Q: What sequence folds into this?
């Protein structure tokens, strides 16, 4: 198995977990993207928007060293914001996620070995990524997305507990 096949497997696994949690949230009756869990963690709308922004940031800022494709949404759902859903529709979030995922995977499919081994330099990205190869950045992307799918799980469980208390 080569790196590109492994990355595709990671993408498929990440997509499967995220989609499952979205479905389970809906089945639990949590269709309120602004719901804030009792723990104070971010709303499901923020988490979903943030996951989409992760793809945009990875490809367009870290890899291509440019600006986000959707600066408005990237800014609304960046780390350090309130964790509130700011009214972005489910469809817009889904389209942002889907296009970001597709564009990153298309880039990976055509990437050369030197492109995957390029090292992120200081001044070109947040310090966390400096010294990482593009390959490592891509790996971190799927880890980050999975971390936030875990947040969706926690939000769902908090929602279910809150509904039982009613």
A:
């Amino acid at each position: 198995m080569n790196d590109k096949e492994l990355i595709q497997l990671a993408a498929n696994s990440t997509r499967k977990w995220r989609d499952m949690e979205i479905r389970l949230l809906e089945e639990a009756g949590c269709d309120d993207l602004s719901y804030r869990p009792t723990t104070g963690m971010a709303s499901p709308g923020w988490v979903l928007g943030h996951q989409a922004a992760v793809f945009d940031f990875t490809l367009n800022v870290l890899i291509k060293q440019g600006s986000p494709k959707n600066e408005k949404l990237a800014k609304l759902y960046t780390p350090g914001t309130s964790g509130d859903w700011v009214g972005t529709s489910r469809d817009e979030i889904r389209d942002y996620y889907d296009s970001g995922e597709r564009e990153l995977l298309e880039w990976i499919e055509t990437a050369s070995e030197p492109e995957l081994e390029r090292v992120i330099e200081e001044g070109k990205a947040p310090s966390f990524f400096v010294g990482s190869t593009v390959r490592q950045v891509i790996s971190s992307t799927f880890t980050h997305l999975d971390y936030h799918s875990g947040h969706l799980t926690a939000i769902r469980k908090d929602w279910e507990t809150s509904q039982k208390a009613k």
